[in-house]
């Protein structure tokens, strides 16, 4: 009798079900209940967890400090929802010592970032997850992430991979060419397009003068190496990188790398490229789940 009195009340206010026979309705691990997570783990033959890492660092005068983490959060959630995966964004900060010359940057040491990632993978491996993909929104994290991929496999007997692509599409080529030609790698046209495409309410375009000119203080002869049409590009592009100064404030006063203006940003182009990337990663996961787990990881 007691049950009949109390139970219907509970049911009426708790009709949410986050995982039905392993099919997720919510994808952030932080939003799933324990039984929903267990239901997913139990029913997915090869459950995949997507780990996103980014940064809190200066992004010029106009983009939010959390740019890389905000973007990667959006991306991994999209991929997770298309592949019935669980996603986790274990830390807002990444490895950004090179941006510390500008206020607002919070950098982890490499050991901290590596620890956060290893502990995230190790915890989920303990619960039986065998497959992880990592999506990185910040170039400074790349080497640490690659080391985590190697170490986690050895330490936890899990599969860890960083899918990249598609690189051959027109949009990919366009953005890559822009990066090479204008050194558009941080807070410039490409990244401003991403911010305007994903969270325009967090962008202060008015802080970038209409007639913006690059503030970067780079030897003009070395700057001339940024020309993918040169015959000696393979050599000079490496000379450019070998000669680049370690910290952002060594070569730019406004925190924007590159020679092309943030005002050239095209959010629609970004959204089309995002769709390619997200679909590529989702398809990667769907196909990966068809492959049995190799003996070494069992
Ligand atoms: Zn960034």
CATH fold description of the largest domain: Rossmann fold
Read across the widest sheet, the strand sequence of neighbours is 4-3-5-6
By DSSP, the count of extended strands is 6
Shape label: globular
CATH architecture annotation of the largest domain: 3-Layer(aba) Sandwich
Instruction: Tell me the β content.
Output: 5-15%
CATH class of the largest domain: Alpha Beta
How many structural domains does the protein architecture include? 2
Name the average pLDDT.
Answer: 94
Note the main sheet. 4 strands, parallel
**Multimeric state of these chains?**
single chain
Mind telling me the C-alpha Rg?
A: 22 Å
Structural class: alpha/beta
Instruction: Spell out the helices and strands N to C.
Output: HEEHEHEHEHEHHHHHH
Question: What is the fourth-level CATH superfamily of the largest domain?
Answer: Creatininase
List the helices and strands and how they pair.
Elements: H1 2-13, E1 19-20, E2 23-24, H2 34-43, E3 48-53, H3 67-83, E4 86-88, H4 110-126, E5 131-136, H5 142-156, E6 159-161, H6 170-182, H7 189-198, H8 220-223, H9 233-242, H10 248-251, H11 267-288
Parallel strand pairs: 3-4, 3-5, 5-6
Antiparallel strand pairs: 1-2
Helix pairs in contact: 3-11, 4-5, 7-11
């Amino acid at each position: 009798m007691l049950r009949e009195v109390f139970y219907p009340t509970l049911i009426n206010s708790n009709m949410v079900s986050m995982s039905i026979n392993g099919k997720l309705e919510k994808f952030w691990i932080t939003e799933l209940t324990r039984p929903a997570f267990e239901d997913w783990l139990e029913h997915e033959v090869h459950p995949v967890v997507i780990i996103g890492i980014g940064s809190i660092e200066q992004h010029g005068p106009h983009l939010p400090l959390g740019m890389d983490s905000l973007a990667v959060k959006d991306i991994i959630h999209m991929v997770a929802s298309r592949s019935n995966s669980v996603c986790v964004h274990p830390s807002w900060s990444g490895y950004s010592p090179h941006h510390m010359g500008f206020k607002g940057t919070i950098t982890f040491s490499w050991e901290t970032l590596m620890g956060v990632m290893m502990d995230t993978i190790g915890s989920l491996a303990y619960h039986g997850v065998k497959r992880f993909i990592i999506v990185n929104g910040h170039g400074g994290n790349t080497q640490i992430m690659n080391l985590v991929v190697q170490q986690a496999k050895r330490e936890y007997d899990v599969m860890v991979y960083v899918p990249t692509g598609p690189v051959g599409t027109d949009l990919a080529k366009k953005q890559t060419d822009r990066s090479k030609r204008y050194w558009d790698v941080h807070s410039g046209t490409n990244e401003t397009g991403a911010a305007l495409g994903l969270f325009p309410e967090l962008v202060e375009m008015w802080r970038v003068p209409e007639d913006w000119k690059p503030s970067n203080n780079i030897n003009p002869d070395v700057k001339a190496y940024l020309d993918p049409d040169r015959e000696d590009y393979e050599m000079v592009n490496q000379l450019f990188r070998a000669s680049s100064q370690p910290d952002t404030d060594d070569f730019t006063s406004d925190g924007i790398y590159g020679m092309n203006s943030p005002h050239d940003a095209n959010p629609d182009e970004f959204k089309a490229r995002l769709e390619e990337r997200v679909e590529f990663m989702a398809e990667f996961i769907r196909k990966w789940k068809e492959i049995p787990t190799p003996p070494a990881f069992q």
